Amino acid sequence: MSLTSVLQNFRVLSTRHSLKCVSVAKSLSSKAPPQGVLKKLDPDTGKLQIKKTNIVPKITLVSGDNVSITTLQEAEKLSKRRDLKLVKIVDVDAKTQRPVYQLMTGEEYHAEDLKQREKRKEERQKNIKGEKVLLLNCRITQHDLTIQLKKALKWLHKMYEVRVVISGAHGNVEVAEKIYSSIDQFFKVEEVDARLVQKRTKGSDIKFQITPPAYKERKDL
User: Fold this and answer.
1) Domains assigned to the chain
2) Could you name the Gene Ontology cellular component terms for this entry (predicted)?
3) Which parts of the chain register pLDDT below 50?
């Protein structure tokens, strides 16, 4: 049975249980105290005392085909006893208004992590508009390099992937490596989470891609 089916069945049972509770509560009293408020008579004075109680948030816990309602603290204790990982899979369920957690083995957790990574990768690929090419010569000055990188930064901001080719001096790849390091440092200083990937060295040349980043909030962007 899939996780979606389990949650759907659980929501139906929860709804029926809630309706029964409401019906019983109405028959007992039309003025039931709100949740989190305790009312009782003081035996000495005979006056009605109202005491606020701490409401412990509940979560929906999925373990295999079983679904239960518990507290996060109890779920954490259970995960430790069973040597399982407690993973939040839904921030707030639309029906129950509770977060949903699942107990997973190490293997299940690893599989879920890979699944989420692939999902994020696919979403990022969908957002990429195309490719731009940046050709750099090993004799480029720092000033000109900064100008070229600012141009690349605009492309990245518009969700273009940038392919970079650094033409090094013949037989001296160290010059190209220095430029590569300068590019990496540039994006760190700009606080841009751009990723330099698929670096290849051929002779004295270096080729790589810069993927569109997740931008941090900056006033100048």
Assistant:
1) 39-118 (3.10.20.80), 130-211 (3.30.110.10)
2) mitochondrion
3) 17-34, 215-221
